[in-house]
Hints:
With 280 residues, the chain is of the alpha/beta class. The protein has a single domain (17-215), classed as Metallo-beta-lactamase, Chain A. Helices cover 34% and strands 19% of the residues. The protein has 7 helices and 10 strands. The chain starts with 16 loop residues before the first strand and ends with a helix. The relative contact order is 0.12.
Amino acid sequence: MEPVPGSDRDPAAAPVELIDVRADNPGPMTLTGTRTYVLRDGAQCAVVDPGPLDAGHLAAVLRACGLAGVSGGAAPRCVGVLVTHRHADHSAGAGTLRRQLENRTGHPVPLWAEDRAALPGAVTPPAVIHGDNGTIGHVIHLPGHTADSLGLLVAGGLMLTGDTLLGGGSSTVISPPDGDVTEHLQSLAVLRAMAIDGRISSIHPGHGDPYEDPLAALDAIEQQIAHREERIAQVRRARAKGLLTLETLLPAVYGPDLSAGLRPAAEENLRAILRHLARE
């Protein structure tokens, strides 16, 4: 695991304010909806995961930035928009939000994404996002859910995980070849080490409720590691009994009552586990 450098944040400054703006796109994969995060630091802000291309949601994000109804270069200034991964429920509104922010602030606003090809005009994220009072947060690479997945460790220990770790004990979908179980377990191990080291004070996922204290954050990480490892063990045991196809593995691993709405995600997770076992 790469160490997170020390913060250059002014110790006398107010903490970075985290504003959670939830999109109205609930569903089996998005839970209660995609969570967009606005980070306010004095007269500056940053946005993480603009969410879907929905006018009402983007208007709410602008309000959280303090820019609703503002035009002609008025403060606050947006230092950048970070997309944690390419999936549309996190990224589809990015280009529109960026243009709206530039129109209102009169300043260029960088769009940061690890997969630059997926978002026109995107550039590689910086290692550190800076605001008025120094460090706003450190960008952390967390591949697994997707190859381009990122997280942001906000000054003060708030960890924004995108879809690497979901709220409410839900497990993220890993769809190969973009998603990778081996890398996902490694990313969860990185988060676990950071939590044990005391660098994570709370976790704020891309979907579902946050884990509001260090113990809840560590417990959530460890539960997801245990859940994924148990799924791998279930598949290994089923294959040892001669169950080799998705049709036979699905009921053996997920039970006979798997809903039709969750079946595609379960199939993708099984494919990812089979790729993981093939490496072993």
